Each structure stands twice: as C-alpha cells, then as structure tokens.
Amino acid sequence: MKINLVNPGFEYEMAIGTNTTFDVKAGMQVALDPLVSNIYEELGFFPAIAGQYRYYYNFEKRQRNRRQIYGNSANYVAPAAAVFFPGARTIESKEVKGAFGYAGLVTGVQRSYDSGFNFSVDVGAAYYAGQFKGGVYPVANLSIGWIISEKRWCVGR
Fold this sequence. Notes:
By secondary structure, the chain is mainly β. Helices cover 4% and strands 63% of the residues. The two termini are 16 Å apart.
C-alpha cells in the first residue's frame, strides 16, 4: 500500500507472478479532458480509478550492477486503464456530465528506497472514450509518495 502525494490518493501493488504485478490507484488525478476544444492546453483534476498490469524487465540487470530492487525498483511495461469521474462541469457554455476513460500501453520506471519513499513515472498512448468522439492521446503518470505497508509484492527485502 502506498500513499501518492502528487495525485492524492492510495495505490496498491500486488504480485501476480514472476516479475509481474497488478497496480491499482484511487484518488484525484491530473488528466487530459477530451471534451475541451484544445485538450493539450487545459488539464483537469478528477476523481479516478486506474490500473496497470506491470511486467518488470530488468531486475537481474539491476542486481548484477549492485543496484537496489527493493519495492520493485525496476523498469516496466504495462497495459493501463483508467476511469475518471469529473461530475458536472461547464465546457464552452454547455453543462457536461458523465465519466470517461482510457485503455492503452505505457512504459515506465519505479524506484523505492529503504526510507519508504517511492516514485514511479510512465508514459505511453491510450484510446480515450466517453461522451465524445474517441481518439488516441498520450498518457503520462507520475506518482511520488511513501510505502505505508509492504507485503510480498515488495521485491528485494
């Protein structure tokens, strides 16, 4: 269990198999708003639930180079999905309601330290869908926080 400070909320990462985990987040998240006229100029801050099925691919190389692997400190690729619940908002003088989401693929890096400090960043592309014409847009996620409960997913202890 981790507390995310950048996108306030909680994150839970659970081991699924060798080098794979399922990571789920719930909280407030910065996101593109596909309903605004120029989606790259205005970001929204919405309640969200997001998940990733992460495959970590460089544990062995990090160990050979005497780098820490605690807390899944490694690089990963992951299919990713998220659902945003913005509530009612006004865009171009129209009231808009309803959730929207995305599904896509990201690549990223995660680092955890003995103090419990943790960060991860990933980038990729996803198909956004909702009450608008769907399309493929970039995805970027940043998580900075602390591990508050470590279980079997915490590789390297």
